User: Fold this.
Amino acid sequence: MVSAPAAKTTSGTNGGGQVAVELASVTKRFGKITALDDVSLTVRRGELLTLLGPSGCGKTTLLHLVAGFLMPDSGEIAIDGRRVTDVVAYRREIGIMFQNYALFPHMTVAGNVGYGLRMRRIAKPEMTRRMADALALVKLAGLEDRKPRQLSGGQQQRVALARALVIRPRVLLLDEPFSALDRNLRGSIQVELKEIQRKLGVTTIFVTHDQSEALSLSDRIAVMAEGRIRQLDTPHEVYRHPADRFVASFIGDANVLRARLERIEGSVATVVLGAARVAVPTRTLEGSAVGGAVDLFVRPEDVRVAAPDAVTAAHGIVAAQIYQGGHIDLYVDAPEVSSGRILLRVPSHEAASPPPPGTRIGIALAGDVAIAFRSA
Amino acid sequence: MPNLLRLVGGATVTAILGFLLLPAVVVTLAAFNSRAILSFPPEDWSWRWFIKAIAYDDFQAGVRNGLIVTAWASSIALVVGAAFAFALDRYEFRLKRTLETVLLSPLVVPHFTIGLGFLILAAQLGFARGYAVVVACHVVLVLPFVLRSVYISLRNLDPRLELAAASLGAPPDRVLITVTLPLLLPGLVSGWMFAAILSFNEFTASLFVTVQRTQTLPVALYNYVREYADPSMAAISVMYIVATATVLTLANAFLGLAKVLNVEHPR
Assistant:
């Protein structure tokens, strides 16, 4: 099995069912540092799964283990149902796109894109056809004879993508592919990549430290920290129902408010903040005593300026008002509930005249969308 | 004021350049002197010392011996140096720092020490009269330069290029042939050329390890100058400078030596 020659089949046509990549209890150490600590992960066929986390969380190590650039110290890795734990990189049929694209500088665009086909000794007519298809897919037809240094950053990235896709990889690995592009280009390329990924149905593992990128592109997100996966779920679930304090603060903006745990009833707990009572899940409150302090995490869009007759959670003074186009960010000082400033995100159409700085306002919470953690 | 500064600056640069080129200029002018003494400036101009130098048996032998020694020494140093450069760049091992120090030590150990060492060693082992000892000595002398040149090229090589090639299905030998070596080529060639120029020029150590039959051009020149003082040597110098400059210019045009002389993308 280990030395079996690379099959010439395309992904999706052989074994493994709905599972494209599977990691079982994978551990990887570098000297004394444990980069990946007993990680298990299943990537479904055709999905775009993002490994999200701060630098040093093990996401790149995980990607390199799937690619075969690194071998795990323990655990098993399977691709399309085939055990590849000790299969070398060049037999894994993986497409990878690096942050700096890693185009071969001494080859033309055609040389780069055709590299994987030449290594597979694909016959000339088929090679020509597949290269033309790949270049058309990334909208680079006509640039075959250019050298990488004659291309813009965006074009280089397209070449890298075509080079990775032309071999019809079982899995496409993207290693922080957008961080080298300027912000304007990034958005349109992300949309395009997502379209290509969906059209080809290629299983994709995407590494990034940018949470907004992860939220907008992923089918599922694996949030990582310190060599472990903290939560694996859809962007919505990860954002709305973070598994722990780290996930809650790493993804999106969150206000951390000092509240009091009033009571626990099964899976629902009640937390008191000023005059407001908020129902939060119990699962994240392990170790908190009833009557004690807890940290309530509330998204900026779930905090409101309280109407005069509403139940207010706290009072504060508007410190700054920042117009963002679609919404307005209000920064409010409310020392009784938060040591930092509370951020309120108000849709601009709802707030034709938001309270100016210096105004004392009441703050209300919208619905039961908060989550509380043991006081840190 | 800025104009004055520019003037002073320009004059300084010109003076430094002039100072650097002075020996070459003096020797070149002396080479065309028709009289049989090394004098400057010449009174009459002539090619006669070029003709005499080219025709002189010891110089002919010196060039031949020098080319033989240089070709072998720099080629062996290239293979050995490249291997060590790979090891130092790619692997972590015990005594790595020590090895690095030892490999670069000929920059510290004087050439005459190396020459003397090889002379004693070769005499003990009984092969003091052949090319082998000269070549071996030169390998030691030029190895650090080759090593450095290849090492810098390797540091400049993005490891992700090799990973990308592997992911595209290239086994290690194909990665080496299609990606690593083509990208290292300028470094390998320039390393070889530096080694060749140094070896061909080397005098101090060569004086110890060569005999009449194997003497290289610098040694032949030294032996000549002990007995004669005509401008033949100046003529040889001019030919040497022209040849070296031609080779370097061509190499630079085709390989872009500038690229390998500094680390562009340190990792």
